[in-house]
Amino acid sequence: MSNISCCVYYTDDNTEAASSGDITEHTPRPYICSVCGKQYTFHRHLTSHMRIHSDKYKCMECGKCCNSDYNLKKHKRSHSGEKLFECNVCRKRFSQSRNLAVHIRLHSGEKPYKCHVCDKAFRQSTHRSIHMRVHTGEKPYKCHVCDKVFSSSTDLNTHMRVHTGEKPFECTLCSKRFSQHGSLVVHSRIHSGEKPYKCDVCDKLFSTSGNFHSHMKVHTGAKPYKCDSCGKTFSLSAHLKSHMRMHTGEKPYSCHICKKAFTRHDSLQIHIRVHTGEKPYKCPSCDKTFGQSSHLRQHKLAVHSKIRRYHCLYCGVWFTTNMCLIRHVATHTGAKVWSCKHCSDSFQNHNKLKRHLLESHNEGTWFTCHVCEKKYLYECKLKLHLLRHEDVKPYICIECPKHFHTAYLLKLHHQKVHADKKFTCGLCNRLFSTMSYVKAHFRKCSMLLKFDFE
């Protein structure tokens, strides 16, 4: 008997009593089922419930038992897919009238179930019952693996996926899977570009409510969370907790593939894409994809934007991004702005720092060619290198029959061979297509002619 699955639908009398506030979390339930121990406030409800243990109204497909023939017929619709009840607003269909009634409240905004402690209102009585546990502190659902407790069975079921590894929700675009439906909804906005949360102050858009609420504190200036070590303040407690790891050195998030550890979970998620090759951020102009949204923004500025906001004070050249300007200025000053956190070494650019970390401190991941074992700092460089082994030249010149391994080589070819030559060497009158070419040539030309500028 203990293995019987119950399918009980309460009568309208019970629904009316609940909606009027007569039944609460603390209402006495003196009528107890002798078979399964379930408790009821009214004797008629216990009588109705007892019918499920008689196997009289049993579903032959899944074994569930109902308390009446009417409820069994309603249950069978879950197998047949029959949906008799349609919403007259959005045309969504339901197999049961009570599900339609609850759905209608989404459109009407009706929330008939009110918390008597904080006056918060809910569309369903079950949601109010779960909410009441916020005030009582009751958490009746316990995980049998780690003993963590929860206020609702839904939260417990979701938590169990942490132990089982189950990810039932799959993205139809990139096949990435998630343990929670809400996580899939948020992820899908990466592909759709949807940002439903708008700041009324500056009109900035956000894909999640959490990011929106965090942003709003930018305008209020509220930073109630203070670091005891350095005095820095934060708008969110989570940001303070993450910051504290800079002082403690704690890195609780570890990559299961290469064991590299991180202070933040989102940093680990970004790192995982190095191994999986996932690049969910796509450029709308050239279809190039990126593993991080920040890299996509940099790409748009550096490649597709014609706006150059950053000005070199040494030579007057303008740049699309601040990072490009910093790298350029280092060629004038010789400044080594990239410092190693493990030793006293510093470098002029990030690539040299990354190579140093890999070679001297074994920090990071090499991308190794499986053919010749040549190592690269970046996966994109390895992919370009592999094209040479495969002798693939996908970039074709429209002016001549030449093919090239990379778009960059095609661009160089076009500049050297086909572009208009507007720049002239002042020593030999040779023409060039770009300023950089004529400058490089001028240095060589002056050395060959032993030209003295002094």
At a glance:
The protein is α+β, with helices and mostly antiparallel strands. Helix content is 41%, strand content 14%.
Characteristic terms for this protein:
Double Stranded RNA Binding Domain, disordered N terminus, 16 helices, two-stranded antiparallel ribbon, elongated, alpha+beta, 454 residues
Overview of this structure, please?
This protein is of the alpha+beta class. Among the domains are: 1-89, Double Stranded RNA Binding Domain, CATH 3.30.160; 418-448, Double Stranded RNA Binding Domain, CATH 3.30.160. It has 16 helices and 30 strands. A two-stranded parallel sheet has the order 1-4. A two-stranded antiparallel sheet has the order 2-3. β5 (85-86) and β6 form a beta hairpin. The longest helix has 14 residues, at 435-448. It is elongated. The termini are far apart. The model is unreliable at 1-22 (pLDDT under 50).
